[in-house]
Amino acid sequence: MIDRFSISSPDFENHGLIPERFTCEGSDINPEIHIHYTPPGTKSLVLIMDDPDASSGGVFIHWLVWNIPPDTKVIKRKELPPGAVEGFTSFEKNGYGGPCPKPGKIHRYDFKLYALGRMLDLPPSSRVQDLEREIHAHLVGKADQFLGKYKRESVLY
Considering the domain 6-150 in this protein, what is its CATH number? Predict the structure, then answer.
């Protein structure tokens, strides 16, 4: 039994390879996320998935979700918990965008989960900077980081 604030996925192990179905080369759906031991005083949860190895030189945002109810134990594939809001990602759209790095180099994908002491009043057009300000102001706890990896193979013509 897990007795600390953390996340996991039945779809891949921590530091393991993300299956293709969750990437731009597959169905591009979010993996199932399990939430363990939410801290007391939590009013909402925030999930951020990003790629710190992005070739643009910055961090590439793949998924932003906030106002996840604190009693949520599972975020299912292709579903959001009731009341949860998805923000604007580096793909210039709302919603999940799976790993899609340039071929050849393995990239890391961080899944970060935060417990907040309030629900957030942010519009879906909000970006990671807006969300990080709210996290900083209302943080109750941060889950152990969960990391996946993905590498696109070179395309031969």
Answer: 3.90.280.10
